[in-house]
């Protein structure tokens, strides 16, 4: 059955496992996405592929005259396969270090926490920018899935400058057009911090900005009922997952310097969702075993095997040329 990280937390056996799952839930994309645990790793992991049909166009309807036929029209679909991949990291700790400091497990806890954060960042980055043809052992993300689709918009929009009332209405009108491209209510708007702050500023002027408490002392921001998600930084880097362009792209299509991408996503098993193995554990940890011989021990954090699937093109949309500075 489909699971989310909040449901996975309920099945955690130890305090450590629960802590790790809650740490992963501080990534808001991971907190919203549902993982469909349907892939059966036949032959000890030899088959980790999820196949699905993406609906590209919708069915039409019309009137007909007496003694005349309807004009035939069929929906357009395309077959896709995604390969599940695992991601995470390992660390090594000398057994001497575990006894140094205010807590005996301080070195282990610090490394575990940082590996969780980097795995969060890598997953969030891949959800947006993943391209299995470029990065080995990765999966494809939203940017690749939406390339060339009817919900990819290269129109130039200018959100830069002073956020007065006129500018606020430009921002919100553009945002409503983006949300209107979807085939249902969006679950989230995903962008970088600069773009999210512009949206917050505009939404406050129309009383459409909402804040609520999130997991682990975080705050959940929304435009109406739609979650505002900062895609954050790349793993081990200070670079934005969704960058602001430092120079113009001549194209075609042309994109201005200071512009960025903004995504709207509808989450669900008929829309955009994660994929995992049948009956598998989403998040796994291995702590260093200091009870055996050997001075340096290894610990690991792993998410997966997982991938993402966009079932319908209109379940996500993207603005590619929004000037925010």
UniProtKB/TrEMBL annotation:
It comes from the Bacteria. InterPro entries: GP7-like. This is Phage capsid protein. It comes from Gordonia amicalis. The lineage of its organism: Bacteria, Bacillati, Actinomycetota, Actinomycetes, Mycobacteriales.
